[in-house]
Structure formats: C-alpha cells, structure tokens
Amino acid sequence: MDNRKSKAIRLKRQIPLFVMTVPGLIYLLVNNYFPMIGIFIAFKNIDYSKGIWASDWVGLDNFTYLFSTGSAWRITRNTILYNIAFIIIGTIVPIAVGIMLNDIRGKVRPRLYQTVILLPYLFSWVIISYIGFAFMSGDSGWLNNSLLPALGMEPVQWYSEPKVWPFILTFVNIWKGVGYSSIVYLASIVGIDKSYYEAATVEGANKRQQICYITLPLLKSTIVMLTIMSVGRIFYSDFGLFYQVPMNSGAIYETTQTIDTYVYHGLMELNDISMSSAASVYQSIVGFILVMAANILVRKVSPDDALF
Amino acid sequence: MIKSKGERIYQIAINIILTVMCLLAVIPIWLMFMSSLTDNDVLISAGYHMFPTEFSLEAYRYLFAKGDEIGRSFLISVFITVVGTFASIVITPLLAYPLSRKDFCAHNVLSFVVFFTMLFNGGIVSGYIMWTQVFHIRNSIWALIIPGLMMNAFNVILMKNYFAQNIPPALIEAAKIDGAGEFYIFWKIILPLSLPILATVGLMVGIGYWNDWTNGLYYVTKTELFSLQNYLNRINQNIQFLASSTVAQSAGAGNTTLPSVSVRMAIAMVGCLPVMLLYPFFQKYFVKGITIGAVKG
Amino acid sequence: MKKAITLLLAAAMCTTMFASCGGGDSSSASTSTDTGSGETASTGSSESAEGGESSGESGSLKMAEETEIVFAFPASGMYTDEGLQMVEDGVNEITVANDNVRVNIEAIASNTYTNQIGMMMAGGEQLDVFGMLGTYSTMLSKNQLMNLSPYMDTYGQGIHEALGDEFLKATTNQGSLYALPNNNGKAAVLNVILRTDVIEDNNISLDGLYQASTWDEYMEVLGEVGNIFEQMKAAEPDMYCASSVSNSMNFMTSMPLLDKLNDYFGVLMDGETTVVNYYESEEYAQLLDIAHDWYQKGYIMQDAATTTEAQNTYIQAGVVMGGFIVGEEGQAEQITNATGVDVTCVKLLQPTITTTDVNGICFAISATSENPEASMLWLNEMYTNPDIVNLLDWGVEGVHYELQDDGTIDFPEGVDSTTSSYNMNMDWFFGNQFLSYIFGYGRDTTIYSRLEANNKNANFSPAMGFTYDSTVVRNELTELSNVKSEYGPGLETGTTDPATELPKFIEALKAAGIDKVIEEKQTQLDAWLAEQQ
Q1: Do C289 and C368 belong to one domain?
Q2: pTM for the model
Q3: Contact B252 C84 (CB under 8 A)
Q4: Taking CA atoms, which of A112, A272, B267, C258 is between 20 and 30 Å from C525?
C-alpha cells in the first residue's frame, strides 16, 4: 500500500519531465515514425493505377538484386571497410584536434584556427567535387599542371586509378568533417571541470598524463556514443562523398562503389521505388542488429555509457 | 604565469600542426575562389591555377544581374535559418534533458525511441505524401523549416550525453531540496551550464538549414519561396541534368548555353560567405567555455 | 510505460495510415473547380456530348463546364513565378475560350522530375498531363499512363494529323495508345563537328564525307574522319579533335541500321530482327579500335572518360576543334550560336528511326487523372496551336521575345538571358516544335520544312513501335547498367586498351545476365512481330 503510494508520488514528480519531452517526441513521431509506414513499399510491386496501397505484395522479390548480382560482394565490402576506417580515423583525429584547440594559448589564434578548420564543413559535396576536379583533372587539374611537374613527377590520371581512391576518399571525408567533429569534442572538453587539471598540475602531471588520465576518460562516453551511432550506419555511405567526389567514374568503381551509389546508379533508369526502398530497409536492419549487439556489449562492460 | 619548457614545446608543436591543417582547409577554397575570378575559357583551356591566369569578374557580374532574385532568396534563407535554429534549440534540449536524468523512469525507453529514428526511415515517398497531403505544406515557408531539419536523433543524443557528463546530479538534487521545480532547474541551471553544446548543436542545425535545398526541391515550386541554396542549386542541377540526359541532348537541349565553371565556383562562394562571416560571432561560446567550478554544488 | 508507448505509436501509425489513404479522396474533393470532372470522366470512351459539345464554328470540342487540369513538365531553364504566371495566364486565355479548360502549369525541377511525378501520383495529388524524358517504357510498365485510345479520335484529332500514324506506333502497346511523342526532327544522326577556321586555313577537304548506309561505308567514312583529324591535329597540335558526350564518343553508339532497343543490352543490327549482343559484336570491337587509336594519337581529349563538362564548353574554350553529336539539321548553327565558334557539321549516317528515337520525349495523361477529356483537349492545343506552343517555348510576346523582321524571334530591348523572367528554352520539348518560332536573329527559318521532310523520308527500324517490358529482368538491368558504366567510358572514349579490357567487359556483362535480357527481348519482339502480321 505504502509502496504503491510512494511510487505514485514518484511518478507524479516526474510529470514535468514527461511534459518536457512532448514537443520533441511529437516532432519525431510526425517527422520520423509516421513515414516509416512507407517501409511496406519495399515489399510491393508498385502499380500506380491501383495506387501504392492496393499494389500487389511481392514478398522479398525487391531485395534479391542486392545479393544475387556480381557486385554484391564488392559494394558490401567497400561500404563496411570505408565505414570502419572513418570510425577509427574520424575519432582519433578530431579528438586530437579538439584537445589542441582547447590548449592553444592566445586571443586571436584559437578563433582563427577553429574558424578556418570548419570552413570545408560549409560546402556541399557537389561543390567539393568541383574543387576535387580542379585539383585532380587529368588535363587541367592543378596537381597535374603545377604541383607534379614542379616535383619532377609524371601526371597521374586520378579518376582512372583505383589504388589511390581509398586514400583520397578517407582524406576528403576527414578534411570535410574534422572541423565539426573536433568542435563536438571541444564542447565536451571545455565542459570538463578545470579543477581536475589544476589539481593534476599541482601534483606534477605533465601534458601527456593529463590527456591520458583526465581528458580521455572523461570523453569516453562521448566516444562510445558516437561510435555506437556510427555502427548503426555501417551499411550506409555518404552518397555525395562516394558519388560526386569520384565523379561517378567507372574505372574506379572497384574501390569507390558502395551500396548507396550502386543502388542509385542501377535504378536511375529503372526508377523503381520499391527496389530502392528495399535497399534502405536492408541497410536499416543490418544497422539495427549491429547496434543492438554493440549496445548490449557496452551495457555489460560499462553500463553508464550504454545508449539505452 | 610560469611556462615550463615542455609547455612551450607543446605550444609550438600544436601551433604548427594546426597551421598545417588550416592550410589544408584554405588552399582548396582559395583555388575555388581564384577559379571564380578566372575567365571561364581560360580556365577550361589553361587549367586551374592558384592565381588567375586571366582575371575576370564575369561570373560575379552574371550573379549580380540576378540580384533581385538572389536578394530575396537570401532573405528567405536567413528567415528559415533563424526560425528553424531557434525552434531546434528549444525542443532539442527539452527532450535531451529528461533523457539524461538517470532517475527519470522512461529515460531508457525514450532514448531508444529517439535512437530508433536514426536506424530506420520510410523513404522520401511516404514522407512526401504525409507532408503534402496531411499537412499541406507544399509551397509554403513551413516546407523549408519543418520536414527533416528541425531536430534529429543525433543532436538529441549528443546533448543528452553532454548533460549526463557535465551536470553533476548533486547540483540538481540540491536545487530540488531548495524547492526548485523541474522547469526552473532546467531554465536557470541546466541551460546556462550548457552553452557550449547549445552552440555546437545550434551551429550544426543552422548550417543544415542554410545549406539545405532538398526540402525546396521536393516541396517548393514557387520561385519566390526559393532559399539561396535552392536558387543556386537550380542552376547547378540544370547543368548536370542537361549534360547527362542523352534524350534531351539529341533533341537539341545540349546546345543550350549553360553557366560556366567559374559561375559555379562563384555560386559556391556566394553561398557560404555569410556563414563564414557569421561564424566568429558564434565562436566565443566554444573558446570561453564555462567554469563549472564556480557553480559546483 | 513500455506498453503505453507501443500503444501510442501503433495508434498514431494507424491514424496516419488512414489519413494518407484518405488523402487521395480529400484532395480531389478539395480542388473545387473540377466539379464537372466526375460527369465527364464517367462518359468514358463514348462520343456523347455529355462531356464535350461542338462549338460550331471551328468544329472543335469544348468541355461543358470549366475544368481545371494540372500539367507538369521538367523545367530545365530559368524562370521566375512572375514569368511562369504570365505564361499560364496567356495559355488560359486561349484554352478557356477554346476548350473551357484551365491549365495549372507545374514546373518541376528537372533532376528529380520522374521521382516527383511518381510521388504526386502515389500521394493522390491532382496530376493530369505530364511530359516524359526517356521514361516512357518504365512508366508504362508501372501503369502510370492512361490509355489514350478512347479519347484520341474525339478530342485529339489535331494531334493525329500533326504526328501521322508512323510515330504514334512508338507509343502504342498492344493496340492501345499510351502517350504522344512530341513532334520534332526525329531523324537525328551522327554528325561530325569541325572548326571551320581550321578546315579553311589548312585547305582540308571534306569531300570524302558522306552519309553511310552500310557498315563498309561507315568504316570508310570514319577512316576519312581519321584523316581529317590527322590533318587538323598536325595544324593545331595544342588542341584536341574531339571531347566526349556523356563520357562516350557518339560514333561508338551509332551504326547504320542499328536499333538499340532502349538500352543497348541486346540490339538489332543490319535491319535484322534477331536480338544480338552489341558489345560482343565484331563491329563494336572495330569501333573500339578506332577510338583507342584516336586517343593514343591525341585526337581525343585526355579527360574524355571522366569529364562532366559539356562538349560545347570545350569548343568554346578552344580545347577541342571538333567532336561528334547526334542530331538533326542545323547543328552547326546551334553550336556556333551557343559557343561563338564557327563550326561545320557533316552528317555521317543515313537515319534509321527507332522506337526510342520517337518516344524519347512524349506526353501522357496520368493514370490517376479524373479529367481525361479536358487533358486531351489541352494536348490537342499543344500539338496544333502555335500560340500555345510559343507561349510554352518562349514566353509572352513583347515581354520575353519580339518578332524580328526576318521571321525569327529574339529578346526585346533591355532583356537578355539572365534577366528574362521566362527563359525556359525548351522548344525541343513541348508538343509540336514545328509550330514554334526560331529563336535568334538571323537564324535559318527554313529548317522545319527540312526536318519534316527528313522525318518522312527516313528508314524505319523493323522493330519500330516495339517497346519491351523490362520488369522481369530488372535485377539484371541494375547490374548491367553498373557494368556498363564501369567499363563503358574507358573503352568508348578510347582511354583504355580494348585488347585487354573488352574481354573483361564482355565477361562482366555475361555474369550480369545480358543473355537473359537478350532472350527476353527476343521473346517479346517475336510476339510483337507476330501481332503485327
């Protein structure tokens, strides 16, 4: 009796917290959950004269092309490998930059560095692909007509050279994103209680020790969180990065084609919304399974850092 | 302040590294800027150079001739960015804060509800049908503000994590003992302590709004409602479309005069200039940060 | 708590499901102006005057009540609301008087156009008439197009006269008409483009060029083009002779008597009716050798396999002094106009008109339309009324263009391509191009009569009118189109060596299932041929 009463009181106390979540949840419900009904399109063969609701169900027919074709292995491999590289490098570099930005002394310089590093984040992929072309074009690119000759090297046909693209794409991705992600980490670092560092300095800890024993442990949950979120999107790839930046050059598909670009390109002429919707369902389900697994793992090792 | 030798070396090292990174960021943009100032024919024939081989303001003149339209779309962009970012900065922490409270009974369930939206999406078709048929936002300013951009799970989780990390639970407990209500705590204690993350998320959402053209592409056909990016992208998209459609080409569309490479580069410069100029004002929140020590419970 | 949330979600989802289901009905109810549509739609194919009545003097039909329709097209030009509104007002002035039809013009961004049409139809938005760019066969197989046959004779008489029987075959499936090809020069063939000044300054003779009609002639002509390129390159070593179009050389994809059957995966050659693998043919290999030879000799631009710039950009910048283009009469004039570089174009092939040449651009009534009669009347205007055509093509006279003394039109005083509020520039698209003015002072105004003559005199492919349904081989096509873009650009611009790459290409196509596609095409073609007997 008493127990139930206190539970009721506790619940009543939490009403304001529930109220706070209402606007956000309504938005998610409308913007994200309602359209999820559209997932059923992946299991239908759309016939516009019947309307999408009345079209015939075709089971998993729309999914077969993702597995049966010769490219299936290549696009899956590329997508996963790039994502793994992005998760690792995309964690280390921004943290390092975030720490440096936090430590830098002076009035003007910190602002200058931050602003400038963020600049690439402001450009769309289309623009970046133009810039990339300005550098790497075989005929008119800056690398081939200025830099390489100055270094006494032969011109390179960048857009037909599959070997270099894993490096180019990783570099471009980090280049564009580092400004923003380092600020995400910087926000956490700035939020760290200064007294920790003061105490450490008093006790004679050097910079490296401060980073290893104060900064990184306090960033751990941010890192874990961002990693879990990336794991959920491991079957996705940034369409702009993989399609626009390599200019959809066929000769380098071996190392640039991912699930998203394959689906986009393959369906451009067929224009089959069921098949593209099937691809996204497939990506989501794999991501979902991986995230659940990752979260369970984290929950076991360090319960506080679990996402949910 | 006394500087140790190690500290001085460290400062020099990070200055060098950051300078190199800044150069890597600036050089491509410089090349782009210079391309926009180069005569287009020379650009195509002589290639891209770090300094214009033949200086020309033609690209900017082309954009200036469309000054009225660009001016109006600029105002639209400013409006949606301000309104959208403001709305986002209100609803995102309101959702994120309760999720960060370990004593909130639904925090796990709701976190999952939020995170789930990052994994699954219903695709553009069902979203389009809902926004146009149920909410009728087609060709209204709301079409540029509401769908997709206002709040996303990533930002909610980012903020939730920040609250959980940087706000000592003892602080909240102390306030409660003093008789403060949840909303009071949120408004007077939590938010002032969270300026860095608010600024981060605000910046990301703001850039998202500023750069977005997909909403305009799907939901807006009235040119008077085009945002700057919509307007500029229309030029670029038409180029790509005409260059890739073989049907249009053999029918004669291939011979249409299209805006040149230098115009496209100028468009990119015009599109991102306002953000570049405004960013330093945002920035003080990251640099100064806050001193939690002063308010520690 | 968990339960409550699940319930809430489930309830919410059901609500939207119903809401969006109902969306279709409510939207058609909310467009108040088309109250008459229910009536007219129900008349169906009957020629009764319930939906239309004879207006006497001109002998044309009219809707009984004013009917509002939505007409969508992919807008690839620049315009403002104001300009588009002026065009719409101009159009409605005519159509309301003539047909009692009010047309709502929806200009949709060109690169998401097909997507958007699908979403409008799926969402139950009103959509009556729309144009298509190369999507006829996929839209047909998705049942997006309404059967026009019942309305054609009554409401579309003028269209039939303008187009003739032959072209309408390209959009006829199993005896029913599903779309209307636009009326323009269909006999487009391979042209070589050459800079006039380089030709004249070096006294290079073009006498060896003619329109080939057999494979051997084609080889001879291309050999002659090679000679010309050699002389040009010797005279201007700093320039290339040709760039690419869509990362391929147009001479690779053209051939006498070739019918690409929509996508090149299984084609008809030499006027036969056996579907063969184009990429495995002797002829394709020979063309690849020519391309590779030209690339190595520096005739073809280095970036040809990857560039996304238009050929004209390179001509204008003086990077190339020629190239290839598939087109009809008047190419030289158009390119010269667009680039400011004086060029000469010579046709290299006799035209063979195929289904895809004809239905590349066409207009249809949406399967979801409730106003087929009014839609047909609007289409009829677009194929027969020069005022409508010119409004859509060039805007309003006196505002967007002015008639010149030589019969052409051009911008009025103080207006140019950047300031015009309607610079759509899509005369190649809307309805009947032959009714349109020619834009650009000083241009040749006799061109349309030549185009019409060419349309009549051209050869037709034996499969003219055949459209295949790709639904059963869509998995194969997805993979094939990827294989083609992996190997195609390199090979077809001569960048890669066919000796090593072509066998890989063929093997990859086989692995992707090209044989299955060919077999499927053959089956469908045989059935179609039997039906034609």
Answers
A1: no
A2: 0.87
A3: no
A4: A272
